[in-house]
From TrEMBL:
Record-given protein name: aldehyde dehydrogenase (NAD(+))
Species per Swiss-Prot/TrEMBL record: Parvicella tangerina
Keywords per UniProt: NAD, Oxidoreductase
Similarity comment text for this entry: Belongs to the aldehyde dehydrogenase family.
Top EC group: oxidoreductase
One protein family per Pfam: Aldedh
Domain Aldehyde dehydrogenase residue range list: 27-494
Gene designation: gucD
E.C. numbers: 1.2.1.3
PROSITE patterns linked: ALDEHYDE_DEHYDR_GLU
A GO molecular function held by the record: aldehyde dehydrogenase (NAD+) activity
Residues at the catalytic site: E265
C-alpha cells in the first residue's frame, strides 16, 4: 500500500481492523466473520472489517426506532439543513473519498470524483426538496369541507447497495430519506466495506456538530444473510436494493410477503441504436465510454450496439480503431481509460461470456483477454472486447458485468431496431443516435423504448441525479434519485375536514337518526 493511500485511509478514519456495525458515532464490538478488503488496483490488502451479526443488527434497529420519533418531528427544512451540511462535508472530502472509491472499487479516479459529485448533487437537490414535499389539495363534493393530501415519514429505510457505486447510491437514498424524516440503515456490498465506513464517518461529523441522536443513521456490514434479515424485518417499512436481478427477486419476494415496500434498481441490458443519420463523431465516444467506462460495471453500461446495416462496417471499423487506443491500467493514473474489474470472480465471468458468445455462433472482433505483467499484478485487469452477436443468444440476453459489447445489425425501419432493443428481460437504459426527427420521436413514443431511461444522441450511462433513475421489467421498476422519487420514502394520507355544523355524507347518502 502506497503512502498516498495510507493518508487517504487515515483522513477518512479507516483503520487496519474495523468494526462492521455502527449507529451514528457508536461503533459496536462486532463478532461476525472477518471481511478482508483487497484493492483490485494493485492487489494490496487495505484492511479488515469484523462483520455485523444478528445481535448488532438488532441493537441498531432498536436505536433507530427511538431516534425516528425525534427526527420525524424536526421540521423538514431543518432536516434539509442537516443534509446541506452533509453536502458541505462531502465537498471537503471529495478528493480522498474519490480516491478511496477508485482504489477499493477500481474505477478511474475521475469517475470516483464523479461519484462523490453525485452525492453532493443529491444533497443539494434534497435541500431544496425539503421545502417542497408537496401534496395536492382538492375540492370536496360536500359543502364546508376541505380535502388535501399530505406525506408523512415512513420510519426505518433499509438500503442494500452494490459494489459498483459504493458511495453514490447510498447517498441517493439517504439524502432523500433523511429530508423525508426517515432514519436509515445501510448494508453495503461486502466487496467495498471501506468506502461505506468512510461515508458513515463523514456523516457522523454532521450528527455530532448538531448534537443529533446517533440513531438517525446506521451501518451494518456483512453478507447476504444481513440483507435477508432486513428484507424480512417488519420494522423496516421500505427496503431499497441495488444489485443483481437474482438478489432483487429475493428481496422483493421477502418484502412482498410481509406487504412492505421495496425499491429495486437491478440489472440492465442497455443498447444504443445507431441509425443511418447518426453522427459518427458522437457515436464513437458515446459507445466506447458506455461500454468500457467503469470497466463495464455500471448498471447503465452499454452492452449492445444495434447498428443499421448501411453503416455497420463503418461503425465497426471506427470502434475497433478506438478500442486500439484504449489505455488499460492503474485507475488512479489519469492517463488510463480503463481500470480493473472488481475481483477474480468478475474476471472469470468475463472470460466465460467471451467463450459463450463464440460457442453460440458469435465472433470476437476485438478479442480482449486477461492482462498480465507489470502493473497488472492484481489479476483483475482485462482488455475490453467487442463481439458480433445476435440478440437472441442466451449470453446476449444476460447482463455480464464486464467490458464486453455485442454488435448487431438491423435492416429497414427503426422500428426493427427498437423491437430488438426491447427484446431482452431487462429495461434500464437505452439510447438512439440519430439526426432524424421521426426516428427520435418513434424511439421515445409509447411504441418506442420500454426502458426507464431513453436518451437521444447520448450514450446509455452517466445519468444526472435530477431525473428519476431506474427501469422496468427485470430492472425492478423502482425509481431513485431525482424528480418525485422522494414519494416512495413517505406514506401518503388523504385528509377531509368538515368545518361546517352539519354532517353531510359523501355520495349523497341519507342516514337520518
Ligand atoms: C449504477 O450503475 O448502479 O447513469 C448507477 C449512470 C450513473 C449511475 C449508475 N449516474 O451511469
Amino acid at each position: 500500500k502506497e503512502n498516498a493511500i495510507q493518508d487517504v485511509l487515515d483522513t477518512l478514519g479507516i483503520k487496519q481492523m474495523n468494526s462492521g456495525a455502527a449507529v451514528g458515532s457508536k461503533w459496536m464490538n462486532t463478532t461476525g466473520e472477518e471481511i478482508k478488503s483487497y484493492s483490485p488496483v494493485d492487489g494490496a490488502y487495505i484492511g479488515s472489517v469484523k462483520a455485523a451479526s444478528e445481535a448488532e443488527y438488532e441493537a441498531a434497529i432498536t436505536e433507530l426506532q427511538t431516534a425516528f420519533k425525534d427526527w420525524r418531528m424536526m421540521p423538514a427544512p431543518k432536516r434539509g439543513e442537516i443534509v446541506r451540511q452533509f453536502g458541505e462535508e462531502l465537498r471537503k472530502y471529495k478528493e480522498p473519498l474519490g480516491k478511496l472509491v477508485s482504489y477499493e472499487m477500481g474505477k478511474s479516479y475521475q469517475e470516483g470524483l464523479g461519484e462523490v459529485q453525485e452525492m453532493i448533487d443529491i444533497c443539494d437537490f434534497a435541500v431544496g426538496l425539503s421545502r417542497q414535499l408537496h401534496g395536492f389539495t382538492m375540492h370536496s363534493e360536500r359543502p364546508n369541507h376541505r380535502m388535501y393530501e399530505q406525506y408523512h415519514p415512513l420510519g426505518i429505510v433499509g438500503i442494500i447497495s452494490a459494489f459498483n457505486f459504493p458511495v453514490a447510491v447510498w447517498a441517493w437514498n439517504t439524502a432523500l430519506a433523511w429530508i423525508c424524516g426517515d432514519v436509515c440503515i445501510w448494508k453495503p456490498s461486502e466487496k467495498v466495506p471501506m468506502c461505506a465506513i468512510a461515508c458513515h464517518n463523514i456523516f457522523n461529523k454532521v450528527l455530532e456538530a448538531n448534537g443529533l441522536p446517533d440513531g438517525i443513521n446506521a451501518l451494518v456490514i456483512g453478507g447476504a444473510e444481513l440483507g435477508k434479515k432486513m428484507a424480512a424485518d417488519k420494522r423496516v417499512p421500505l427496503v431499497s436494493a441495488t444489485g443483481s436481478t437474482r438478489m432483487g427477486k429475493s428481496v422483493a419476494e421477502t418484502v412482498g410477503a410481509r406487504l412492505g415496500k421495496s425499491l429495486l434498481e437491478l440489472g440492465g441490458n442497455n443498447a444504443i441504436i445507431v441509425t443511418p443519420t447518426a453522427d459518427l463523431k458522437m457515436v464513437v465516444p458515446g459507445a466506447v465510454f458506455g461500454a468500457v467506462g467503469t470497466a463495464g460495471q455500471r448498471c447503465t453500461s452499454t452492452r449492445r450496439l444495434i447498428i443499421h446495416e448501411s453503416i455497420y462496417d463503418k461503425v465497426k471499423d471506427a470502434l475497433v480503431n478506438a478500442y486500439g487506443q484504449l489505455k488499460i491500467g492503474n485507475p488512479l493514473d489519469e492517463n488510463n481509460h480503463v481500470g480493473p474489474l472488481i475481483d477474480q470472480d468478475a474476471v472469470r465471468m468475463y472470460n466465460e461470456a467471451r467463450e459463450k458468445v463464440v460457442a453460440e455462433g458469435g465472433k470476437l472482433i476485438v478479442e480482449g483477454g486477461v492482462l498480465e505483467g507489470e502493473g497488472y499484478e492484481s489479476g483483475c485487469y482485462v482488455a475490453p472486447a467487442i463481439a458480433e452477436a445476435e440478440n437472441h443468444f442466451a449470453i446476449v440476453q444476460h447482463e455480464t458485468f464486464a467490458p464486453i459489447v455485442y454488435l448487431m445489425k438491423y435492416s429497414g425501419d427503426v422500428s426493427n431496431a427498437i423491437a430488438m432493443q426491447n427484446d431482452v428481460p431487462q429495461g434500464l437504459s437505452s439510447a438512439i443516435m440519430t439526426n432524424n426527427m421521426r426516428e427520435q420521436e418513434e424511439f421515445l413514443a409509447h411504441c418506442g423504448s420500454d426502458c426507464g431511461i431513453a436518451n437521444v444522441n447520448i450514450g446509455t450511462s452517466g445519468a444526472e441525479i435530477g431525473g428519476a433513475f431506474g427501469g422496468e421489467k427485470e430492472t425492478g421498476g423502482g425509481r431513485e434519485s431525482g424528480s418525485d422519487a422522494w414519494k416512495v420514502y413517505m406514506r401518503r394520507q388523504t385528509n377531509t375536514i368538515n368545518w361546517g355544523s352539519e354532517l353531510p355524507l359523501a355520495q349523497g347518502i341519507k342516514f337520518d337518526l
